[in-house]
Amino acid sequence: MTENADKKTKILSSIKYMFQVIWEHGRKYLLYMILEIILKPVRSVWTVMLPMKIVENLTGHDLPGAIRYASAFLIGELVIKTVLDYLNYRSHVCEDSFDYIFYEEFCGICMEMPYEVTENSRKLDRIQDAKNGLDWSGRVACAVDAVKEIIAAVISLLSVFSIICKDTPLLILPVVFIVIMEGRFQKKEIEENQRYCSVLPGLNRKMDYYLHETSSYEYGKDIRLYGAKALLLDRAQKVADENAEEMKKTAKRTADIRAFSLVLETVCDVLQYLYVGIYALMNHVPIARFTMLISSTSVMASSVQTMFREYNNMLEGTEYFYRYWAFTRSPEYREDAGARARKPEARGAHVIELRNVCFSYPETDREILRDINLVIRPGEKLSIVGRNGEGKTTLIKLICGLYRPSAGRILLDGVDICEYDPKEYRKLLAPVFQDFRLFAAPVEDNIVLDGVTDTEKLNAALKKYGMYDKIRSLRAGPRNELLREFDEEGYQPSGGESQKLALVRADYRDVPFIILDEPTAALDPAAEYSLYRDVRENMEDKTILFISHRMSSCKFCDRIIVLSEGKIAEEGIHSELMKKRGVYSKLFEAQAENYG
Could you give phi then psi for residue 191, rounded to 5 degrees? Predict the structure, then answer.
């Protein structure tokens, strides 16, 4: 009973949501749907009654009458089929637009869901499962279209039911038998498909990863120079083999089920036609009447098959689509602001304070950060240093609101950042991470990203970082495509130029807090120092957080925070920390010796 209720919930929830989308974005689809539901039974009746009239006139030696009915049959068939083809075409156009709405919703959730989800393999499998459900369900084209076909088939069946019941009522018995047996077969087939789908999310995510690695030019140098082709293809092949093995099991089992079902349907069809033939011979049924019975039997058999085929499609389609629907309704993948979310002031002096902040990654016991207490004052230039793995980038992600502390609080102007609308809070920040991304889009769009371009402001930002002349020299200037993903004449910046464009993006955003998490890794120490000096001069009024492995860049900062073993080990300016002869001085001297 629970299983039936659950299945009913999935069907109703999925179809209800699809109809909501149809009502909001394409009501014409409902009109096309209703017209198809009307015309398909009309066509069924047409194929039953008109042939009977043709035969009736021929056996009555009324040739002109037979020609009239034959002409009417052909013209009617042509008109109805043409209209149905047109409605089908228009329906497909609408279905394509609905598909875009679903995929846009899915991508929107993925881009706005809590960032920590992207580092949780269990939740990533759930996202892959939702995408699989969306891909395999057929969306509106499967579920809603199945409803339309079932209704049309039921009406067609009822339209010939009275004819069959009047002359050959025993034909109903094979139909009832098929209904019972098909229900059992379909239940087994759906259960088998669900078993297969339960193992796919992890396999598909692995396969997508290897396909991306082997086809993306980003990995091209490493693959070629280190001969990684065989390794990657071997790992991809193992995943493909595992998937193929599961697919073979499912294909064999479903093929057996379908074969038995097909044999049963064929036997029932033969028995139906045999019964009609014997009945006609024993009761001396006129040829015209016999023709109508045969046509009615054909319509009945076709309608029953359509009902079960489409019902099976609907069950399977809604089962898949429900995974997507449930994902879009899951609060753990939503970063909703809430009704009482606050909005921080866009301008003015802002203070960020960390009070007793601790952090552990989900489903782990290891504390990355412990009891961090830090006040970041307006206009301060703060450097955060430490060995690899000390939590520097994690601390920045906490400040950016990408993670939430396991314990403690992060405050903006005395208010916990959890109380702010996350989108509004992030409008105060311009981070440039070490693994920043440039997109296959015009240079201008890569810098502006959100909003209308302020040309004067854009040019000023480009000049600050020495990129103005370079961008203006491009074929289409700032509107020139960045990267060659879609344009052979796209601008492919060097590593240093890419990092400068990332800084231009942060500068153009014109926000109170600038965060630089080792974005200059591709520059030599002298170039990095020069660039950081330019950043300080160009953003004198901003609060800037620097993270860099190169300790020399700390000299021009107002304050240096040293992380060690997940805690703030030291704090001060360069000269003070060098006198302490602690963690900072050891790091600085070791690096100076290496660069020396």
Answer: -60, -40
pLDDT digits (tens, 9 = 90+) for 242-283: 877 777 777 777 777 777 777 777 777 677 667 767 777 777
Dihedral (Cα; 316, 320, 321, 325), 10-degree rounding: 140
Do 393 and 323 belong together in one domain?
no
Q: Which pLDDT tens digit goes with each residue over 409-458?
A: 999 999 999 888 888 898 899 998 888 888 888 999 999 988 788 999 99
Residue appearing with tokens 């060097």: 494
- Average pLDDT of span 576-587: 88
165 and 260 in a single domain? The answer is yes
CA end-to-end span of the chain, whole Å?
76
83: CATH: 1.20.1560.10
Residue 209 has a pLDDT of 73
**What CATH code is carried by the domain that includes residue 527?**
3.40.50.300
> What is the mean pLDDT of the segment spanning 192-204?
67
β 381-386/543-547 pair status: parallel
Residues contacting 136, CB < 8 A, separation 6+: 197, 320
Q: Is residue 363 part of a domain?
A: yes
Cβ-based neighbours of 254, under 8 Å, separated by 6 or more: 189, 192, 193
Q: Pairing state of beta strands 352-360 and 407-412?
A: antiparallel
* Same-domain status, 393 and 365: yes
- Cα–Cα distance, 388 to 181 (Å, whole number): 65
Round to whole Å and give the CA distance between 111 and 384.
28
Helix segments in 60-199, DSSP class H: 63-112, 121-137, 139-167, 172-198
The model carries a pTM of 0.74
- Could you tell me whether strands 415-416 and 407-412 are parallel, antiparallel, or unpaired per DSSP bridges? antiparallel
Domain that holds residue 272: 2-332
Residues 246 and 278 in one domain: yes
Q: What is the dihedral of CA 347, 348, 349, 351, to 10 degrees?
A: -50
* Res 289: pLDDT: 76
219 and 70 assigned to the same domain? yes
Q: Which strands, in side-by-side order, build the sheet including 407-412?
A: 367-376, 352-360, 407-412, 415-416
